[in-house]
Amino acid sequence: MRRLNRHMKGLEKFYLTNLYTPENNKVLAEISTIIQPRYMDVVDVFYRELLGDTSARQFLDSEQVENRLKGSLKDWLADILSPKERYEMEHLIERQLQIGQVHARIDVPMPLVDNAMLMVKNGCFEILVESDMDREHLAEAIRLVNSILESSLSMINQAYMHDMVENERNAMSLRLNLSGQDIALEIERIRSDLFNWLSDSIFQVMSAQGLAEDSLQRSEFGLWVNHKMDLITPQADLSGKIKHRMDLLSADIRHLTHQADDPVQRQKEICNQMSKAANEIGWLLSELANSLLANSSKEDSLTRLIERKHMAPVLQKETQMALATGNDYSLIMCDIDHFKRINDIYGHAAGDLVLEQAAKVVRHAVRVSDYSFRYGGEEFLLVLPESSAEQAAEVAEQIRQKVEKLVVELESQRSVNISMSFGVAQFNGHPDYMRSLKNADMALYSAKHQGRNRVVMA
Ligand SMILES: Nc1nc2c(ncn2[C@@H]2O[C@H](COP(=O)(O)OP(=O)(O)OP(=O)(O)O)[C@@H](O)[C@H]2O)c(=O)[nH]1
């Protein structure tokens, strides 16, 4: 919020001299007693308008979300349309900026909010018109409600635009900053997963064991293409081709799962077709890896995990996909126990070595389609697409055990053992990913509190 602080004083002055003046505060006291009992009517109109739009429905159409957001909108209206004193101004402005940031995280299309806000305004005007205010007071009240709603919305828009631009910039630099070498290695792992999937699938079909319709989508390769490829690779033409070939493969699988009584010859033909598509994808993946290697000159960082600033576009994408498909992602927040002590006893360089090795365990324990971020100094955040909290807890437990067994060799023949604590949370259905993140953080806190070296689920 510091970035907008220099505007704060100007905004505060504007609010105090134009909106929340002593005279206007008197009018607002009257307005709020009239509108107060009917805020929910206005809020209902807003959501009806918003949910009329298919793109908004994708992330808002859930009872849980609707109820929470309705409550927030009601509180927001009650807040801005009540008298305010000078000392309340900073908090009021801060709140509008926070709302804009939440909208940016949810990626709600702002023009949609603008439209729906028109309905809110009209709703408020209607309530005032239906009241027994005299004409002169009524005009004044309508003008004031209009100015307050307009100013607040413009402030929300400002913060929203700022954060959206920032998110976009971070998504771009995620591509630029990840070492080309790391992505190329990742692509190699994905390629081999694809061919493993292919040989298993052909074996299953030919031995009449049947193939699950979503087996490709659920494979590490499928998850990587759906959740990660676009965010980490800049070659839109190659990734478009890979997606197209994957669709062809999916169509073949659908055929095989629905035409179980096909003659063996026909099944062989389809398997050949699948092989061909998979080989083409394999070739395209190599192209992608080569082009990344050719452009790579970046040094690896200490942990070789993704920097925290790139978290927003990833969590935004995962949240949108989870809301659209119902396949939740899960988060693991983990932290090295008593790390400060390691620094204090063995020195900062030893601390770095421990950090590097712990991060290596984390990197190797997750699927290629997962994301591992360096969240803080010795704190990591893992994002696991299409995974339940139970599955994530299993991954966390595996990492915990590996870290517990790790012996970090230091200089002068010294060595150190470490442990890590883990907080696990499944996406909780709220379009603002910060809610889920907070749950993981609280679970981690609880793991620390319960004695460390353990996994706690939110
Ligand atoms: N060597 C090294 N130390 C770091 C790095 N980043 C953060 N730290 C240190 O990590 C320590 C974190 O300590 P705390 O957050 O107090 O927690 P802790 O000692 O790990 O204890 P618990 O988390 O409560 O188990 C601080 O002393 C930081 O200075 C880094 O990149 N390298």
Task: Please provide a brief summary of the model.
The protein is α/β, with parallel strands linked by helices and 458 residues long. Helix content is 70%, strand content 8%.
Structure, explained:
Its cofactor is Mg(2+). Residues 327-458 form the GGDEF domain. With 458 residues, the chain is of the alpha/beta class. It folds into three domains: 2-175, Globins (Globin-like), CATH 1.10.490; 180-294; 306-457, Alpha-Beta Plaits (2-Layer Sandwich). The protein has 19 helices and eight strands. The strands form two sheets. A six-stranded mixed β-sheet has the order 1-3-4-2-7-8, sandwiched between helices. A two-stranded antiparallel sheet has the order 5-6. The relative contact order is 0.08. The model has no long low-confidence stretch (mean pLDDT 85). The structure holds guanosine-5'-triphosphate (GTP). Guanosine-5'-triphosphate binds at residues 335-341, 343, 348, 351-352, 355, 377-378, 448, 452.
CATH superfamily of the largest domain: Globins
Termini, distance in Å?
28 Å
Radius of gyration: 27 Å
> Which of globular, elongated, flat, extended, rod-shaped describes the shape?
globular
The main sheet comes to: 6 strands, mixed
- State the total count of DSSP E strands: 8
Going by helix content, strand content and strand pairing, the class is alpha/beta
**Continuous helix count:** 19
Order of helices and strands: HHHHHHHHHHHHHHEHEHHEEHEEEHE
Q: Reading side by side through the largest sheet, how are the strands ordered?
A: 1-3-4-2-7-8
Helix content: over 70%
CATH topology of the largest domain: Globin-like
Level-1 CATH class name of the largest domain: Mainly Alpha
Pfam family, one: GGDEF
Organism: Oceanospirillum sediminis
Keywords: Coiled coil
Enzyme class: transferase
